[in-house]
User: What shape does this take?
Amino acid sequence: MCLMRTHSRADLTKTLAMTTPFSPPLYMQRYQFVIDYVKTYRPKKVIDFGCAECCLLKKLKFHRNGIQLLVGVDINSVVLLKRMHTLAPLISDYLQPSDGPLTIELYQGSVTEREPCTRGFDLVTCVELIEHLELVEVASFSEVVFGYMSPGAVIVSTPNAEFNPLLPGLRGFRNYDHKFEWTRAEFQTWAHKVCRDYGYSVHFTGVGEAVGHWREVGFCTQIAVFQRNFHDTMSNAKRLEPSVYRLMYRVVYPSLSDNNIYQRTLVNEVLYEAQHLRQEWLSRMNMDSSNNAHFCAPPLMDVFQHGLEGGTRDCQPVYQQGGTICVPLARVWSSPRVRALCGSVQRLREELQVDSRVRMSADGTVLILPAAADDEDDEEVEEEENVKAVSGVANNVEEDWDRELGCYGNV
Amino acid sequence: MTGRARARSRGRGRGQEPAAPGAQPSVSQEAAKPVMPPPPEGQLVGRGRQKPAPGAMSEEAMMQISAGFQQVKIGERGGRRRDFHDSGVHTRQLMEHVKESKTGVSGTAIELRANFMRLLSRPLWALYQYHVDFKPPMESRRLRSALLFQHEETLGKAHTFDGAILFLPNKLHNTETVLCSETRNGEKVEITVTLTNELPPSSPVCLQFYNILFRRILRILNMQQIGRHYYNPDDPFNIPQHRLTIWPGFVTTILQYESSIMLCTDVSHKVLRSETVLDFMYSLRHQCGDQRFPEACTKELVGLIILTKYNNKTYRIDDIAWDHTPNNTFKKGDTEISFKNYFKTQYGLDITDGNQVLLVSHVKRLGPSGRPPPGPAMLVPEFCYLTGLTDKMRADFNIMKDLASHTRLSPEQREGRINRLISNINRNADVQNELTTWGLSFENRLLSLNGRVLPSERIIQGGRAYEYNPWTADWAKEMRGLPLISCMSLDNWLMFYTRRNADVAQSLLQTLNKVSGPMGIRMQRAIMIEYEDRQESLLRALQQNVARETQMVVVILPTNRKDKYDCVKKYLCVECPTPSQCVVSRTISKPQALMTVATKIALQMNCKMGGELWSVEIPLRQLMIVGIDCYHDTAAGKRSIGALVASLNQGMSRWFSKCVLQNRGQEIIDALKGSLQAALKAYLKYNNSLPSRIIVYRDGVGDGMLQSVVDYEVPQIMQSIKTMGQDYEPKLSVVVVKKRISSRFFARIDGKIANPPPGTVIDTEVTRPEWYDFFIVSQAVRFGCVAPTHYNVVFDSSGLKPDHMQRLTYKLCHMYYNWQGIVRVPAPCQYAHKLAFLVGQSIHKEPNMNLDDFLYYL
Assistant: This one.
């Protein structure tokens, strides 16, 4: 019962660096392999077994490509507790919420146990994991992952024993915790059996190639990518609370799929646009009224150009009505950011009509904003307060602290 | 058997640095050392402490650890290097007269509540410090902690271990415990855990530990750390016009206060902007055109703090690399990679504008394991969010009003927010779990304490004296129609105006005439001069009309644009020293407000020419009060400006002012030494004697700078006094004034939570035991929460009683002539602030010395 931190990884890359340096380092290449897979196949739910320091999860968080649920499982809760906060949303995730939802969960648990909430995933990754299992456990691993969870795809990576002679100074396994290191043939035998037993097909690849005639020993890390052959029935199953695993961390990222956040973001964008149009209009009016004729020409030009630039023939003007400034919805709609947020003017109108921060005309074509800036002198309210005695007001006795100090002692 | 390691065997990213070979301490002798008592506290100097690299300590460092905690720092990544709380500055013990008591007696008692909570620990609680020794030595810190925590049943659930030092809340059975672990490849490791120290709850290490623990708690409560504070991202409010997002949050510190360890927590707000630097650049270019863009861009952006999209780091923009775009490359490891590709592969971020220029930030942060900073950081504007407010926004009344409506909390709201935090802490199961494993808890209510309200002062104006409303703390109404102490008559003065403002200029002139009579100011008609609304023409008008015998120049500015104001001040403060008064036409455009405004202008003009307005009774003779403040010019070359203002008479109504520009690498006090000597000479000239007491109020001391004031500035001040004569030995007091503090006090007035009244002094419970310090709430605020001012007497040879020190300080808050009421700091500090600000913002040069005796900068 030993939990060992592998310093082997660092050592490995260090020794390799002397003769056949992998660039980028091998572990990066393994992560990159998963990222590339995600980019191509766009799974929605991904589970990473043996997530340890959550490096892969952290990478996938950035390279989401449509991932909505990202789960990490590790048997060691201490390391999860230590690292889990690195998966928290960044400040920028709040400032500009992403389009799609993302939830990250971390569990403490073992890949040889059946946990109902791990079913129905699109992709399971087991990067450099199986070689740490006893061979008997590998069988139950296969049963749990392929038979019980039966995800859409599984990526399994493991060292290629045939490559080992190329690693200088290496005797035995690459890591003291490895229970076995398979040759390509052994790995493939296992993989093909899994495919037969659980209805998957597989193809093999890897990362880290040797140069020259050594090429034929294969990749340093061999990778098997399994695809499920049958249609799955569970992917839409309701999310369950874990019954075997222990939930260590769960975080829901802010996203536009959350209605409140969507509404807030949209209204902010609309008000930004509308206020700018209002401001522009006001400053033009100011100029017109306060200056002589020669100032009139440029603004008109400006309007003209603006219309051309906007590309919209129907450049409806901003206008004043009583104490309010009216900004046509169509002008706000022309902002690309607003457009990106909601697909049609119709939808925009509907969203705005239910929001209390926006005032609209009855027919929903015009936004209504106050004309004048609030008066600066509002604050000058003279308040006649009833005078309360706070403390004894000024004792009229004349004081002399110098003299008092005299008594106080010649310190 | 199932090998927990299986799950963690994945390669790790950039890893920790292995210890330097040979640096491994010979720890076997160490293990035998007995527990030693901590050294006297006075030596625990906070600044410049280095975080020791665990496991790579010299033997010398090890000795120190077991001897106490000079070097111990509980490891936490990104830990502070500066001591922001100035703990370890022990000044009180050096002042005989306050060793016993530093509390005052004057005034009436008032019951208050403060934003403090006691930290409770079970009786006899201590933090046990153990030294952990591995045989054979293990290099990896992670491996060491993995090996050690195989023995969780022995060590307990709560522990903090940095690789060499272990802290436990419980004492192990034996002083020395030997544990055996086995690595996966069968290597046996003997771990010796030896008690080296029993840290009492108030020891510096414990305090550090509480703060780390509390930050963990805030993180459990889903707060985001920005800078030193924590904010709640789930409940933002927005100001959409400017794409501002404001997060509410808290400033927290746990420290040893007068009688107990407490958590001080105050509400704080973070202004963020959902606008990238690139967005900003686009709109700026749109506004000012391609030609002026580079200049405008540099002016607007340099000095701003930005936040990067891909991590939570903040940077200050120091420069713009006009010749760099994201297509440029940089060296990552051994390979060249373009910024564009880097962000794509690293973070999956696409750069949409390949032609944007890059931002440069000179990073001061040290590289990994204390290596020198890696050189300037190049940042892509598209991935940088702006933070905070620009000066432009600050000047925008509407933004500030919107902001204030959200951030300015009434005493009731503020107390409510803090109480909500307290109840969150007490309700959250995870938080409670974290606290109880350490045997700690927080008292679930705010601290109650007693303060005193000082008697209000009598304002003396000429032969008369009057009192003011103690709640509003201003006497604008009371002084109406009363003659001032001394008035300068206006015989030869000029008024400049533009054609558009000819009418308002006339009405201002008439109203000034009307209001000046009752004050006692004799006023001749001003010479009216029209100028064209351009900076050059204004300057020309000044040059042509301001003469040697001109007493006062009034300029009516059409807008509040800074450039013309700067132009007037630059010319009339440096080249042609003449008191001047600028008025923005808007402020005098409303006829109904004109009387009030003109009264204020008349008072201000009188002060600028050397007149005196009012006074309070100062019961100390031969006293000179000095105020010092600085202004840090962040934009233009980061040059600091120091200002010194010293009283010249008994009534504190005449002041000598001096302003210096600090040179690079120079301490501000070096430059101000000469100013202090000049002030003493001026005092001598006015009084025919030197002062027998000098009290220096030093404002503008940043967090963590107290030690340098004590160690460096005080001796410099004494030296400077000495130059007036060998046998000249006045009594000296140096008081550090601090306005930006997070202590808040709440009073109950008529059953409602309210601000404490002006004159409230707090000198117990929330003060620091090692200081001679007190708080005064001197000003009154109409909205929001009043901020108390903290006074820390760091040096005092005057023997003045604490009560007198407090009252004198409060009296001086009455003497700022630009406000007919009580201000937040003693008048000389406010004057010094005003002067430094004027020079830093507008003049950028040392003002002409002919103006030294006047309050020309008001």
